[in-house]
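Help! Submission page says 'invalid entity' but I think these are all valid:
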Amino acid sequence: MLTTLEQHVSGFTLALVDQTQDECELISRIKKSSRISPQLALEIYRNNTRGARINALQAIYPACRNILGDDTFRAIAKAYVNADTAGEADLNRYGKAFSRHMHTLLDTGRLPEDYAYLPDLARLEFMTHAAYYADPDPKFDFDLFEQRVLNREQVSFQISHSLGLLASSYPVHEIWLHNRPGFNTTQNRHQIQAISGTQYLLVYRDRYIPVVVSVKAHEYQLLEAFANKHSLQDVVEHIDCDIDVMLPGMIANKWITGIIAGKRCNG
Amino acid sequence: MSGQPAGLPANSVGLGLRSAHMEQVLLEQPDVPWFEVLMDNHTAKGGLIPAQLAAVRKHYPLTLHCVGMSLAGMEPLDMNYLSTVRRMMLEYSPAQISDHLCFTSHANHHFNDLLPIPYTRESLDHVSGRIGQVQDYLATNILVENVSTYLQFESSEMNEAEFMTELVKRTGCSILLDINNAYVNEFNHGYSAKEFIDTIPIEHVGEVHLAGYEDKTDYLIDAHNNRVSGPVWELFEYYLQYGHCAPVLIEWDNDIPELGVLLDEADRAKQIILHNTPDTARCASC
């Protein structure tokens, strides 16, 4: 049997997350003597939660906001917040699925096709945000690497906690650079050109600052394979690249930070 | 941890450390006796945030103010969250740790807001137990803050001040007296904020918060986006008549202004303390 406090907490939170619920029972438990009606009180609490989450999205996605304008961004953010009732305890981690939300808006015609690049831009923005807050990485253990190679173990590599990988058919790197806060539009008037093929981007944290760099396809594939824990042997067999040349650079750049047991793929 | 906590000067006026001011604080090292860190915004283990906090800590005492303990929640305590608090205690040696008399999550939903409970004997047992668990885990007593509310419950068997007084008796926790919240509640619900101050055990107030509310004409929102309002300064003067010398914080969390504005507010608080704390009564309860 639920205690009074459990009933209160359950009823209150249900009213906050699901406005279709019958609020009569909860409202009957709220004192009427206040300046604020029970219905208004619930709406204030809903607004507080919504406001905190929308503010978080505005902070995480400044370039998307700059492109869409405040009102449109806020409307899109509000719809996202309303759909995501669970939220996140840590607002610094909130909004990961915002890119997917934009995809849905495009697919259903609620966002014009002109904005087809926005989901990729949103992913890039979330990656830079996540890189800023990422856990620190250990130092690469060369002795352990040598030992495992000598033992002929299936090794793979741990990539940096801050590393993000994005392949896009849009020039999202340039779009991001041109729409970040503080970008000087009077000094940088050149048009962003469409690209043919795919842009491969890598996000990582260089000491304190998130950095976005454009990389070659095979560099991207290599890091993606390691991110998926594929073994070094698999990578050598399936990706056309000079691993002896690339690996030291990736370790020096701290994109690769450790050694883990590798898995063999089937195909 | 009753009264003035170790590490924070009596009657001192600290500021909330916000990321917008971090570089300026590190560069100019303004004359501020201590800073409050909003724990939930600074949990990163790597990157700039811990580096900056460590640098600030070299020059200033810090307090850790939390919003995620959900002290009145029905779910088991979030041990990941508490372990983060403990890690940050080890890293920054905060002078004190605080959270609110409310719940913030339920059934895997996180509200990012401070949600009220009915003040019943059942709630008292429940919240006391949780505060006890938190204090045992952190191996220190915490401060519990009164929150602004927009509704009250018919089932309440006591008022907020009586509830907090009992919490102090049962758990040994201290009170973080938010004078802005007390005033917002007075305006919204029509009960006396002075009576609230008169009822709580002043000698167990370990910190005082001053902030600005948002006036919606018919009601007030605890928005922390303004200068401290006139009625809140007046209520602060009323509190000071008790001669208690708990450290005071200027809180400003939204629409954050230049650091100079916060320093102005802190100066005003210092002047009010100077003019309203009788010499004979100063620190009498510490």
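Support: the input was valid. A stray whitespace character was the problem, and the output above is from the cleaned input. The domain at 136-267 of chain A is CATH 3.90.930 (Outer Surface Protein A; domain 3).
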